[in-house]
User: What shape does this take?
Amino acid sequence: MAPKPKPKPTVLSPSQPPPPIEDLFTSLNLHIQRSQFDQAVKVADQILLVAPSDEDAIRCKVVALIKEDRIDDVLSVIQASHRLPVDLSFFKAYCLYRQNKLDESLESLKSQEGTSATMLLESQILYRLGKMDACIDIYQKLQKSKIDSLEINLVAGLVSAGRASDVQRMLDAMRVKATSSFELAYNTACSLIERSKYKDAEQLLLSARSWLTQNQVGQETLMEDNLADDDIEIELAPIAVQLAYVQQLLGNTPEAMEAYTGIINRNLADESSLAVAINNLVVLKGPKYISDSLRKLDQLIEKGNGAQRFQLSNGLESKLSPKQRETIYANCVLLLLHSNKMDQARELVAALPDMFADSVMPVLLQAAVLVRENKSGKAEEILGQFAEKFPDKAKVVLHARAQVAAAAGHPQIAAESLSKIADIQHLPATVATIVSLKERAGDIDGAEAVFDSAIQWWSNSMTEDNKCTVIMQEAASFKLKHGREKEAACLYEELVKSHKSLQALIGLVTTAAHVDVDKAESYEKQLKPLPGLKGVDVESLERTSGAKHVQSDSHVEVTEAYEESKNKDKAKKKRKRKPRYPKGFDPANPGPPPDPERWLPKRERSSYRPKRKDKRAAQVRGSQGAVVREKHEATCTDTSANISNSKSDLATTSKGSSQSVAPSQSKPSSKSSKKKSRK
Assistant: This one.
């Protein structure tokens, strides 16, 4: 049976009178209850034709348009109704919030009373602006209003404000379990990640995805809503990305890369989760796959229109937090620097200060571009200007300036930058770095002043872990190194009096011997005498040409005991090991012994017999006379060759006269005749 066609809405002709306004409101209410917001807008227009200034009709039309995501039409209606006695500031603020015009939205709310809805919208705007402390204050005021799911937003605000340690305390005060809702489990897991409790966060994320029991949410809850598999995966995409991030933090890089790659390839995730997965995968790959990483990030960043030269695609500007957006832009700049695309990097960096005015990242990236262009001096200048302009954000910037200056060969600027960081300037590592930089710059007096300032600070400090002794010891060594023995001796003496340090006592005796011999001798008496030197006459020893090493009896006994223990250790170590036989060898039936000459070449073995030449191979068939004549000629030729060779050998080896050559000439001829007779 074919379905019945839906009745088309009737269009009133100009001559036809409109229905009663009560019937129109009844129809409007019916459409709103059925979520038929497009029809509700049309009925509201009919009411406004009859009563143009009806406040209820205008509000219903505005709400219906918001439900239909027609934000521009809502703002047009509000603009057209500004002369009417209807206050639509709240709806205007909400629409501006939806368009990511946060400052204008916050300004529109100022004229509103402090209702729960107004405060909730204001907190959302502040959260989007990154003003987390003000956002949390509003959420805490709203706790008495008993707003549903308020704890979800409050946990998200605490995590974003860097107060993850307060999350569990807040949940206990509100008597809410972390597993009471899907979103709360996710946000609580994020707080555990911030506290470096990665295993606990992983378990909570897994429970949010798979638990089925009461008060535990996850994948089964989504299945009960009869959602398709793709829709379920889209809903669970944030948890999948966060689980991959936990694996990344745990050091399981292959598992994290596999998870990120699967999420990206399936493309079954919301835009924000997909962007986070792409960014994290780019970070894991590093500079090895620059072209592929740049291609992935280019999909997220596009050139904007008007004042904003760059923006994130797919509406990510309103879906990601400022910190996440800043991270994506920063990674893109770093990849451009690695790929040597300086023009694009310079263009992107120039647009970042307007986008993130309250952040230090743009100036750090600008300095990185200048350093890459071999303009370290300019980088030091802009970092110094930023530190002076924003003292509350100067710590990271001064660190970067010190690093740039030290790498560029400007130790004085590097030392000056570190000296301006009040939180760390008296720590031993910082003091050592500043002293080393000033020493490299040739400013010895400045280096001593750094030591003196640090000693003064630690002397007045009441902390348990006091580093005054360490710094005084290093300061004394530094002064002694640069020929200031008197000041070094004063430091050593103070260490000896206050801490009874043996090392300081040795240093004091050694240093005072150059300045004040009497003081050195007085403190030398506090040193323990060395064993074996009681019977040594120092004056007679100095008059001798050389001194022999004298061993005391105790030392000899110690040496003998040491040698004896060493021999015992060697004896213990000599343990007979069980022999290892080849595979398949039976030691009970070893068989015949191996040939002892098996490793020698065959020609060197005793059993070697060379192959005999075949004499028949040289025989030639033919007439007997011809063969004899050829053999005879060959024999004569060989004989003459032998004679000549023997003469040359004798001529080179004999030391006597040439008369010894004559008798030797007859011997080859007799031998050759004998050979001929045998043939």
